[in-house]
Amino acid sequence: MTGITFYDLASNRGAMSPFTWRTRLALNYKGIAYKTHWLRFPEIEPYLKSIGAVPTEKNPLTGADLYTVPVVSFDGKLVVDSEAIAEHLERAFPDGPTLFPPGTRALQKAFATFFMAQVFFPTGPVIGPGVPAIVDAESAEYVRALRRAPDGAPLDEWAPLGSEKRANAWTVAEDAWGKLAAVYCKSDGPGVWLSGTAPIYADFVVLGALIFMAKVVTQEEWKVVTSWHDGLWGRLWQAGEPYMQAD
Ligand SMILES: N[C@@H](CCC(=O)N[C@@H](CS)C(=O)NCC(=O)O)C(=O)O
């Protein structure tokens, strides 16, 4: 198989996974040509097994191997997991824009750990329940079966629209993104990006989550998010738009 094939998650709102968006943003930013092969949730494991990909995680409920996207095939060589793909892109395409400017690799790793624990996971109750509505019926069932809160609550009960639970969950989310705003505030230079005028991979980790959020919350809720923290997330979105194209 020649060329670059990017295995991404299908939805009825186009590319939506926060993890595959990291890869898509990185590919687009580096100007690397690729073709997307879309997979629906129930197709991911059987298809990835059939092409020889390895699992990246364990199913949180059963402990079984979990096959995930993004996966990218570079002329038939498979690279799994968004972080490994980013590192591979940097090694294989050293010319042009860089994802990891010299000296930033370790700090970007620390940033991603902070982001997932302190920002993304606390946002889970408002974003997780929106997934079934933007995928086909079979995928929706798959997602409902796999995703449960730590207390065992089914997805639909995490934070139903209009509920007090949801209002409280949004307060927690705003506070979590406030911690990230305090990090972005320390950026040098005129640009909105973490390192100043150009994006780095860590910005794509954040943008991937914002794009996902925009697709799974209501339009009204999304509008509020873009106004949080002096409009920072709306500005970051605008700066990232040039890299958001999907084929
Ligand atoms: N460690 C992975 C996580 C990727 C991940 O969780 N992908 C989800 C899509 S959002 C997935 O493929 N899930 C497969 C499933 O739930 O069966 C990465 O960063 O690449």
Largest sheet: 4 strands, mixed
The percent range for helix content is: 40-55%
Which kinds of small molecule does this entry bind, naming each only once? glutathione
- The strands making up the biggest β-sheet line up spatially as 2-1-5-6
Name of the CATH class of the largest domain:
Mainly Alpha
Number of strand segments: 6
Order of helices and strands: EHEHEEEEHHHHHH
- Beta fraction: 5-15%
> Which regions have little confidence, pLDDT < 50, spanning 5+ residues?
none
- Estimate nothing, just give the exact number of structural domains: 2
Structural class: alpha+beta
Tally of helical segments: 8
Task: Describe this entry's structure for a reader.
Pfam families: GST_C_7 (PF22041), GST_N_2 (PF13409). InterPro entries: Glutathione_S-Trfase_N, GST_UstS-like_C, Thioredoxin-like_sf. Residues 7-97 form the GST N-terminal domain. The chain has 247 residues and is α+β, with helices and mostly antiparallel strands. The protein has 2 domains: 4-92, Glutaredoxin; 105-243, Glutathione S-transferase Yfyf (Class Pi), Chain A, domain 2. It is built from 8 helices and 6 strands, in the order E-H-E-H-E-E-E-E-H-H-H-H-H-H. It has helices at residues 18-30, 41-50, 82-92, 105-127, 137-146, 164-184, 201-216, 219-240, and strands spanning 4-9, 35-39, 57-58, 65-66, 71-74, 77-80. It has a 4-stranded mixed sheet with strand order 2-1-5-6. Strands 3-4 form a two-stranded antiparallel ribbon. It is globular and about 50 Å long.
List keywords for this structure.
binds glutathione, two-stranded antiparallel sheet, globular, 247 residues, single chain, 4-stranded mixed sheet
